[in-house]
Amino acid sequence: MIPRTATATALALLLASPALALSDARVTRLADGQLEISWTAKTPVDVLVSDQPDAPRAAATLISRADADGRHNLAVPAGERRYFLLHEAGTRETLRTAERVLPYASASNFRDIGGYRAADGKHVRWGRIYRTGGQPLVNEADQASIARLNLANLVDLRSIEERRLAPSRLQNIRYNAVGYSMMALMAGVDPSQLKNGGAVYRGFPRLLAPQLALTFDRLLESDQPLAYNCSAGQDRTGFVTAMILSALGVSRADIIADYHLSTPSRRPENEMPKLDPALVASDPVARMFAGYQKPENARPEPLVDADGKAFLSYALEEIETRYGSIDAYLEKEAGLTPARREALKAAYLE
What we know:
- The protein folds into 2 domains: about 100 residues, Immunoglobulin-like, CATH 2.60.40; about 250 residues, Protein tyrosine phosphatase superfamily (Protein-Tyrosine Phosphatase, Chain A), CATH 3.90.190.10.
- It has 15 helices and 12 strands.
- The strands form 3 sheets. Strands 8-9-12-10-11 form a 5-stranded mixed sheet, covered by helices on one side. A 4-stranded antiparallel sheet has the order 4-3-6-7, with no helix packed on it. A 3-stranded antiparallel sheet has the order 1-2-5, with no helix packed on it.
């Protein structure tokens, strides 16, 4: 088990930018519906807000001038999204931040992967790439909120069986998927407890190569917002996130920290509808997911083995053993040539 402080440590790691005077910016949702923006800076900071993820300072609204206490609260209507620009007085330092985990009541593990410090001192753009669990139970209010993200593509990483059992309810978004069987994913593995999670992850580089190629193709077609998902938004989605962030030059520490945010961010009750007992009796994949829905199995568990090693590490080690590097793997198996990787950085870093 990872220690109780692991989530807090992960959160501190993933948003820290030690090379900048202005750093550690984050947005936290409070119980009263307000957002708390916090940061670390050497001098007072101007705080600006916009509903556009790439708004320049001139197009954003100033909500706090020369703020010296490192935090500011703002009430935001339910279902709406805000992006914040922090400008340190007397310097050229500007940092953009936003709420990472989107608070959709009927979804699970819906997160923006923006904000991470990446290649050449830049940061991953907010509001462009989202990772999430499945959306079979998304209600109308959350559908309306997700529609405001202006997603151009949804890449479904789930198996044929999962997509049949729990079709996505997101509408008016280009849907993308590559067919494979859940049996191929779970071959030789105890699925009820994920006791051999390392074995599952070691298979991801091979199994998910077509999905990675598809995801990078869609990201490079345009820089319009894209989301991708599996059922829980943590394992296959975690691997694809690691590959995207690696291609953008995000550090391994931040990638692992983002991966571990799935544990507190999941809402398992929203990931799969209740399954018909007759279907459970005849369908092994339905039977597996019904097992996850039992009360004793429904609580998200830390994504580590008995020694505390992140399951994701097994996939990364498999890549480095077989291909030498993640860049070499992505070029060979996902078609991400050096030229395409530079185009990806140009589109998704600021």
